[in-house]
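Action item from last week, closing it out:
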Amino acid sequence: MNYRKFIVFFISFCVVLFGNVIYTLSCGPEMDPYDYYISFFNPYQSGKGYEPFYYTSMTSFYDDATPSEAEANVSDWQQFTGNKATAADIRQYIYTYSREQMAAVTVKSTASLPDSVRSNTFTRFLQEDRNQEAARYLLFAKTCEPAVSAADRWSEPTHDIPQMTALLKEATELYDKTSNKEIRERYAFQQIRLMHYTGQYTDAATAFDKLFKKSGSTLIYYKALALKAGALQHQGDSVQSTYLFSRVFDKAPALRTSCFLSMRWANAPENAVYALCRDNHEKAMVAAVYGFGDNAPSLEPLKKAYGFDPSSPALNVLLGREISKLEADFLDKAVSTSTDSAAMATIRTLSPELTTIVNTRIRPMTTWMNSVIDKGKVKDVAFWQVCNAYLSYMSRDYAAARTMLDKTDHKDPEIKNQWEVVNLLVNINQQKTIDSAFENKMLATFKWLDGQVVKRNNDDWWSSGRDRFFNKTYRNLLSAILAPRYHQQGDFIKESLIRGRCDELDTYDYFLSGQSAADQIQDVMTSAQLLQLHSFMKSAAKTPYEAYLVSYFPKKLDLPRVIGESYLRTHDFKNAQTWFRKAGSQQVSYQVFQDQLQDFGEDTADAMHRKAITQLQFCDRMLALQEKMKTPPVDARVYYDYATALFNLTYYGKTWSFVRNSRHTYFWYTAACEKDPFERQYFGCYAAEAYYLKAAQVATDNEFRARCFFMAARCSQKHVAPMENDKKYYSALVHNRYFPALKANYSQTRFYQEVYGQCSYLRDFVRTARK
């Protein structure tokens, strides 16, 4: 054995194995496949029955088709009964009753059955003499089911060939004995299915042609035709197989997903399938199915299907897919920065990348759609008009969007709803300033949206959200459109209120859906802005629009406490003290005056720090320290305690929660922090450094001076800006301005020996200095 190769392989294997384990365990939740980009387009208006083929890049199929196979089967049976049995009773009989219960119905011996079975309307229907053939068929189908299905989806099905052969013989005999045409058709299906699953593919295809001489319209007919298509595929005729699957796909919505998968497996040349189509409608459906398998942006499948049959119902789905792709590729990037209001305030033009998408994808698409709309041959012209207006909105051609919206005759309720959404988006963007008059108009829309939203069920994570489109639309409108617009106008009060309404929707599936009202109010707004908000909330003179938004203001938010915290961010302890006295609740600290030699740990009680310090008490102490600084000589400990408190209020301190609602691990000091007074201190620790240095200058004890210089060094290190060159960055951290003094003057102190063992930067500095 080559042990060197073995060792290399073993190490690589472990890296891959455990690396993936660590990655899996450390990552957060995956994106919701139905809500991972900003969207205002409702795919469910595209076409009932085509739900699996709406666009999402996260899952193979978007949703289950309507109706489901079970619903279609129940519907056929209800029609068979002449509506004498309810759909619920039919479903219960077929899908929940045992073989024994069904057997009792065939012999009319129901005395031992529960009352619920005897009272079932379908049971009573089957007990009639003339319907006993149907009862016997359902019993036979129940017997066949285990033989032709897998125990679970993860196991390969195992077939008992002798049993299935016996069942095939019985199905043939029952077919010949049965007089009812519809029941005979079902026995014919069972024969073909049993042939198919026992590998008799030629016989299965031949049996279909023999037993189904005329085209049918029932689910059973199309299930049998799909079996013939599958049999042909097994025989190597992928083109004929694909064509037949396309016919089933067109006519039987419940079977579309399985047909689509079978067509993909066949991988037949598209043009060869067209040659078998009897008319342009069939060709359009083939083009659509091939288009449904293409997740790349392309108008070609849509144009091809339209060229064959402008009235094809699949066109709306293909159009909807392209719109959803543009939302994911373009709209999300165009407005997702708007979830960060400060960033959105600087946006004036689209990036070159997005401009290219406008010029190469959106405008050519709207131009082509205009010609389609003018010809009026598509099934739902109003749907195409609203979609065209939406695309114009995306490309910021609001005049074209307005023109198209005004042309739209939206009688269908779903299309009207989509029209309302697009109309609002266009109105907002055409409005140079959101004023009271426009707000009054928006209030009516908000109340309309309130009537559309549904209460969130916490168990419906990763559901397709058939009923929650308006929840997501309303959320995106508020957080990605309106909140940034108010920010642009400098109206931070309305911005926070808009975010409050957004929070109340409780629809945060889309992970980048913007900061919450609490985040903005507690972490972003300045003291002056918060004072305006406080006055506004106290004011009785509010418009109906303002009153509506105020009703959703975060109930648990203690505004006086938040204002006090905003003053703490600027080290204005006097004003902070005033507001903390008005606060209904306060946070507490145990170690805000305890120095931190390392960047970890929590501000909790321990044996040395058992007394809680409220935010008000903290301000009292800081103001007392400030008073002591005014009268020289100032004790070094005064400066040191003051510096320690300032450090603990920073990003790296244990008591950061006194000034921020949350602390993100991916934020750090950069040169941009210098532009904001709070971030300069929060990430840069300048003030804390200055007071540690003052403490060092007046201290007389070397042990204490060493501590002061080391803490100053820690603060200094925090405002070293990251560099692209990691070696240079680490070198800058090592060559701290205070390390030379520490090494030269205090290396004999106990404190120096303690931190030398803890601080790798100090050790590396000393090692570098020796060289």
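Closing note: The chain is about 65% helix and 0% strand.
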